[in-house]
Amino acid sequence: MGGIAAIAKAMGHKVTGSDSNVYPPMSTQLEALGIELTQGFDEQQFDPQPDMVVIGNALSRGNLAVEYVLNRGLPYTSGPQWLLENVLKDRWVLAVSGTHGKTSTSSMLAWILESAGMSPGFLIGGIPQNFAISARLGETPFFVIEADEYDSAFFDKRSKFVHYRPRTLVINNLEFDHADIFDSIADIQKQFHHLIRMLPGNGLVIAPKADSHITQVLDKGCWSPVQFVGSDWQVLNALPDGSEFDVVYKGSVFGRVKWSLLGQHNVQNAMMAIIAARHAGVLPDVAIEALGSFVNAKRRMEVLGTVNNITVYDDFAHHPTAIATTLEGLRAKVGDARILAVLEPRSNTMKMGVHKQTLAKSWSKADQVFIYQPSNLTWSMDALLVQSEVTASVHSDLDILEKSILSYVQPGDHVLIMSNGGFGGIHQRLLQKLSQ
Q: Strand 156-159 vs strand 53-55: parallel, antiparallel, or unpaired?
């Protein structure tokens, strides 16, 4: 929603907005753009009356602002619908979808197009550090968008991405997630097939060869060409940490990526971005060179600081697969150095306990695990301690969690903090205490 606000501002509109808990980096981006922000949903924000109210999918009936809009008959729409009608309908949309890696892959793709001189517009669910903004209108027909399967609004339960009408579609992977709105993987697959039905015949679907859930979706019917990573497109001679790899198409080597990112998941993300950019007209060798200067989005294995030889990272991981791949990448980089994993189970799916059978196995590459159990969690995480292959502890108080980490950490350690929220500012609190 912050990115949509930024695009609307760039189009010349006066933009204001509200939310209940806004934190960096989005809060600071909005301030820098001069977008007035209301904390909470006070009705006074609708004076003077807006021409359009764009309602995010986090809001539902009963919210003060929502009820005011409905009672007064104010014009309203969803964020995805507004984007379609005002921005995307005349653009070549390159959409990046999937359970994991959307932010990183769309950031890579936008940077590749930018490096090729194509000045794309983009809307990304994080802040790509090559651009320092999460969204922009762009100057050409090309528009890169992070295409989420979450619902559009309380009045539109279709996935957001069905509004985007892409010509180029990346499907990174497909797992069960968002248990608060989907009952099964089949429900999610149905939404992905709605998206595929909208792709033009001269469009392109890009997917991994080995993902059975994606294969099942494509088997329901696909009217566009499909290119797979793992068949025609391959990765060869990759270093264990993913920092270098060769890009190969039908046996021909296009070049070797040498970059700052880690993990085999990011290698696959890069392949997706290279193929998508090629569909839009960017030669693979140009894309490979661009990735050499790519800096991942904030909160994606972002190094926040190194104090007394202790490195603190911030990562958005919110699903067992994302936790596992992030830790695998870090382990490949640091070797035998100790990794301390600090986890906040904040996503709706995690809070519901859907992943509790696989969560303990996901952090097996860490040496020590510190888990925060918030008061609104509907299940106890104590059972995970028995399942865990490494020493783990559960804390319901952030201050005690912080003290526990500080009492254990020592020079040479890597502290990986994983949450898709603000986590009570524990990142900066730890860095400050470590510096003392």
A: unpaired
**Residue 154 falls inside a structural domain:** yes
DSSP letters, 88-120, are GGGSEEEEEESSS-HHHHHHHHHHHHHHTT---
Q: Point out the annotated binding site.
A: 98-104
Q: Closest Cα partner for 241 from 331, 304, 161? A: 331
Q: What is the model's pLDDT at position 424?
A: 83
Same domain for 127 and 66: no
Q: Is 231 found in the same domain as 94? A: yes
Q: Are residues 100 and 56 in the same domain?
A: no
pLDDT in tens, 28-73: 888 889 998 888 999 999 999 999 999 999 999 999 999 999 999 9
Flag whether 297 is in a domain: no
Regarding whether 105 and 28 lie in a shared domain, the answer is no
Distance CA 365, CA 329 (A): 10
Is the model's pLDDT at 258 over the cut of 80?
yes
Report the C-alpha gap between 58 and 5 in whole angstroms. 16
What is the extent of the structural domain holding 26? 2-77
Residue 276 lies in a domain: yes
Residue type, 351: K
Q: What is the pLDDT of residue 196?
A: 97
> What CATH number is associated with residue 211?
3.40.1190.10
Pure H helices in 243-368: 264-279, 284-291, 320-334, 348-351, 359-362
Work out the end-to-end distance of the chain between its first and last CA atoms, rounded to an integer number of angstroms: 38
Q: Within its chain, how far is the Cα of 51 from the centroid? A: 31
Secondary structure of 353-416 in HEC code, one letter for each residue: CCCCCCHHHHCCCCCEEEEECCCCCCCCCHHHHHHCCCEEEEECCHHHHHHHHHHHCCCCCEEE
Other beta carbons within 10 angstroms of residue 114's beta carbon come to 19
CATH at 16:
3.40.50.720
CA–CA distance, 371 with 416 (Å, rounded to integer): 12
- How many structural domains comprise the chain? 3
| Domain limit, last residue, from 245, 272, 291 | 291
Half-sphere exposure at residue 326, Cβ-oriented, CA atoms within 13 angstroms: 31
Domain boundary among 27, 58, 77: 77
Domain assignment present for residue 35? The answer is yes
Binding-site residue set for ATP: 98-104
Alpha helix segments (H runs only) across 165-259: 185-197, 212-219
pTM: 0.80
What are the two backbone dihedrals, phi and then psi, of residue 255, each rounded to the nearest 5 degrees? Answer: 160, 180
| Contact (Cβ atoms closer than 8 angstroms) between residue 255 and residue 247 | yes
Q: Are 210 and 231 in contact (CB under 8 A)?
A: no
